[in-house]
Amino acid sequence: LLTLDEVKTAIAFDQPKLNASANGREILVEGSYLVFENDVVTAPAGPITEFEIKMEFSDLYPRRGPKVFEVGGRIPRNPDRHINGGGDCCVTVWEHWLATAPDHSLGSFINGPLNEYFLSQFWVEKTGKWPFGERPHGLKGLEEAYADALEIPNKREDLLYPLRLLSQDWPKGHWLCPCGSGKLLRHCHRDGLMALHRRVLPSVARRMLGRLKSEAKPRPSRRRGSNI
Amino acid sequence: VTRPLTNSEEYDVDLVCLLKASKTEFTQKSLKEAVGAEVALYAEARNMTKPLEEGRRCWTLNYADGAQFHMDILPALPDAQRYQTMLMEKGCRVLASDAASPGTLSPLPTRPCRNMGRLRMTGRRAIRWATPPGSGTGCASSSPSARRPSASVRASPRASTTYPVNPAENFADKWAEEPKKRKNFDRWLSQARSDFALYLRASPFSEMPALLREHLGADFVDRMLAAMLPTVAAGLASPAIAASTSNSSDMQRAERAIDQIHRAGPQSKPWAGS
């Protein structure tokens, strides 16, 4: 379980203007988030820019992603800026990051997706362009992210079956191979699938399936909740 | 001497008791006992009521309550030449000159960044920087750098903090028995990292962050700045860079950061759920 001490250690040098405190099983991190170039240890001119933020971490991190809020009002509350009315930042599709990043430590998140998000916000503010691209809103964006993570074509019908296979603790060799050859998995892409299974853990695949189902359900009104 | 910041604190006098002897004449234990016996006799002769306290490597002489004064006496043998050579090899000329004359602290140098180690040592006087009681980072050496255990703390099963002068010595040797010491040290280290990152990362080098000044002790920082060369002091007191220059440089830096991420491969793209 993630502890307050671990959070404090992770932010102490990298993000000295953030403060962490415990609130039950939740850890709150608040203050100014500083944006830097990669691997900068000392910054003679200071940070490139900074944003006032609040983050909520569950002690179940990284299984449960953090919620990130921009609280300074610098980013216009516009879905096209990937932020919701309450300042809830749509940093990334969490399962995509879990499936593709080798390191899921807090420091890796803070210096990876979070830095990319706020660097992007700075760049959009100045130029109107997303430097690393953006995903479509809603279900389409989820499908795109999961297809990227599984390195398969972005088609819903191509996505669900491999995810069901990966959701198993041990994919069955007598199931059909997801490549569409009609062969049994054990006679086709078994090794490739098992390598993917080591990278995309069953819990992550199950969560992907769950979110695809929940995003596909029609909703009475447009709601924007936590997107991590 | 570390002066107290508030009336409730004590003067902390660190005395290195340098014996004119060699390592062949004393073991570490006998050296400490010999000095301890002398200090006990001194306390008795002066009718000092507070008992002499034995630390792991030093003796603490507590003066009467009203005096707000205690003295840590550190037994040592002359070994300055060795430290000086080691520090010179590492390029720490200023520290090497201190090693040759232990117990002295020269004025804060004029280049604050490169000499952060010195600021960190002298910064012990700050409230936030008070060495946590029982963190086990005391020392026995005539080298000024000895008070600064390395930040590299290796993980279990046996924790160790490396000590550049004598790699065989482990400041963390008691942590297994007393885990609180490790916790205290980690807390201290985390605060130190955060405080100095305020200067090293969160603000231009030409500015002294208000929070760092507060944590190190405003009077102390002001005295040190006043002792620096006027040009440097003026630079620290004035706004760093003109706004227009800063903006264009921020864009260039952002562009460079984006290029770096593209080369390494971005880890994420923003997305909004429905």
Summarize the structure.
Chain A is α+β, with helices and mostly antiparallel strands. Helix content of chain A is 38%, strand content 13%.
Helix proportion of residues of chain A, in percent? 25-40%
N-to-C series of helices and strands of chain A = HEEEEHHHHHHH
Residue stretches of chain A low in confidence (pLDDT < 50, at least 5 long) are: none
SS-based class of chain A: alpha+beta
N-end to C-end Cα span of chain A: 19 Å
Distance between the termini of chain B: 64 Å
Radius of gyration of chain B: 23 Å
Q: Widest sheet of chain B: strand order? A: 1-4-3-2
Structural class of chain B: alpha+beta
As a percent range, the share of strand residues of chain B is 5-15%
Describe the structure using short key phrases.
heterodimer; A: 228 residues; alpha+beta; four-stranded antiparallel β-sheet; 4 strands; 13% strand; globular; B: 274 residues; four-stranded mixed β-sheet; two-stranded antiparallel sheet; 9 helices; 6 strands; 41% helix; elongated
Question: Which helices and strands appear, and what pairs or packs with what?
Answer:
The complex is a heterodimer of chains A (228) and B (274).
Chain A: H1 4-12, E1 18-23, E2 26-35, E3 49-58, E4 67-70, H2 94-100, H3 106-111, H4 113-127, H5 138-150, H6 156-167, H7 190-199, H8 202-216
Antiparallel strand pairs in A: 1-2, 2-3, 3-4
Helix pairs in contact in A: 2-5, 5-8, 6-8
Chain B: E1 11-18, H1 28-45, E2 53-54, E3 59-62, E4 69-76, H2 80-89, H3 93-100, H4 116-122, E5 153-154, E6 160-161, H5 179-200, H6 210-216, H7 218-227, H8 230-237, H9 243-264
Parallel strand pairs in B: 1-4
Antiparallel strand pairs in B: 2-3, 3-4, 5-6
